[in-house]
Amino acid sequence: MFAGITGTIVDVSAQQSDQQRRQQVQPKPKASPAKPAPQQPATGPKAAAAAQAAKLDAAGPSQIGPPTVARFACMIDAQTGAVLLAKDAEKPMAPSSMAKMMTVYLLFEDLTSGKLKMDTRFSVSERAYAITRGTHSSTMFLERTDQPAISDLVQGVIVVSGNDASVVVAEGMAGSEENFAERMNKRAKEIGLTGSVFKNSSGWPQEGQMVTARDLAVLAMRTIRDFPQLYRYYAQREYTFNGKTQANRNLELKSVAGVDGLKTGHTEEGGFGQTTSAIRDGRRIILVLNGMSSMAERAQETARLIEWGFRESSNTTILQAGDKVAEAPVWLGAQEKVPLIIPHPVIVTTVAGQNAQPRIVARFDGPIAAPIAKGTPIGTAVVTLPDGRVIEYPLQAGADVQRAGIFSRMTTLVSHFFLGWAS
Asked: Rounded to an integer, what distance in angstroms lies between the CA atom of residue 112 and that of residue 227?
């Protein structure tokens, strides 16, 4: 916080003694009070850094990671799911146009399944047409007589954040926006959005509609993983429809290396927000911010935190796919043990300077009865990360193990019987 600057004005004429005043034959005009020099506002990098520090101090700390002026924040590593930044990430907030990410997710699902095609056309209802007339609402500039194709509506929702396009999509896919909202909520729970309630397709303010920063991060991650071919629309910088060209409101698409999505938002209730994804050298970070005071602050804070995420953390592969984690004893097998392997790479995210070597424990019920086919699921690898998080990965048999011959099996059974009885 800045300390206040105070000044004292001294009236020199008031300090004259009575004697001096009596000696004056002719009255002299009083000297004007000295005026302090006007304070010049500090400028330059140091002043900007001080102002930013004051804002961050006033905004309060994050529960995880660095402070931010945003009221709500969540940053995750898309590959490992590690949380790098959290500030009230589980608290409900107004989604504004970031709710459109759920609308797009359902639209991408129907396109991927073949239920919809890019040349499928929807009608523009009076409700869809009216939602942007006479307001400051984002619009695709649909006319009442238009029959837009899905290829147009995808860009209308994603690139220019058209509320009219969102309503057309909702009504075309579900018959009404209310029905579409039910589908949004059902699918949201299925993909792990635990604190969100959608009331409409556009994010237009409506009682009871809320999301969390954590849920938006999960939704962004699922969109990128589930629809890699369609996700590219989020990186599109502008779109022209009905003769009107509009730029994507995600300013970081042009200014921050690696940014390729996703969605901005703003309402009076929720402030300025943005869900951003950036990829560098194969590593992807997803950042959600909301509750900022202006577009400029949103852009500045997004850029600053994206840089922080890549600079102050990294991913390390601690196990490659196919690495042996342990060996399990085999019951009545041609071999006494079977290797247990990890089928997928185990990658951990650590902050700068942190040891990336976690504790790994193999858990399984053994001995494993033969025969055993390579690839058979056998237990889990429990990985305890340096930050205390525990993640479980499946383990598989790394080799085929045939049953032992009859003589060997009989010998084993007899030994087990007598040794077990003697014990």
From this structure: 8
Amino acid 56: pLDDT? 80
Report d(CA 164, CA 143) in Å as an integer.
10
Identify the H or E element spanning 56.
helix 45-59
- Counting residues of the chain whose pLDDT is more than 90, the rounded percentage is 67
Give residue-wise pLDDT tens across range 173-222. 999 999 999 999 999 999 999 999 999 999 999 999 999 999 999 999 99
Which tens digit of pLDDT belongs to each residue from 125-148? Answer: 999 998 877 666 899 999 999 999
Query: Buried b vs exposed e over 305-325: b needs ≥16 C-beta within 10 Å?
Result: bbebbbeebbbeebbeeebeb
- Residue 70 CA to residue 79 CA, distance in Å, equals 24
Rounded Cα distance between 423 and 409, Å, is 21
CATH 3.40.710.10 boundaries in the chain: 61-313
Q: Where in the chain is the domain with CATH 2.60.410.10?
A: 320-422
Residues 6+ apart with CB under 8 A from 33: 9, 10, 11
CB count within 10 Å of CB 189 equals: 11
Burial state string for 226-239 with b = 16 or more CB within 10 A and e = fewer than 16: ebeebbebbbbeeb
Query: What's the rounded mean pLDDT across residues 42-69?
Result: 81
Q: Is 198 helix (H, G, I), strand (E, B) or coil?
A: coil
- The helix (run of H) or strand (run of E) holding residue 339 is strand 337-341
CA distance 390 to 217: 20
Burial of residue 187, with CB atoms counted within 10 A of its CB: 0-12 exposed, 13-18 middle, 19 or more buried: middle
Give the Å distances, CA to CA, from 333 to 283, 366, 393: 43, 13, 26
Element containing residue 377 per DSSP (H, E): strand 377-384
User: Could you tell me which CATH number the domain at 61-313 has?
Assistant: 3.40.710.10
Q: Is the pTM of this model over 0.90?
A: no
Give, in words, the CATH class of 320-422: mainly beta
CA Rg, the chain, in Å? Answer: 32
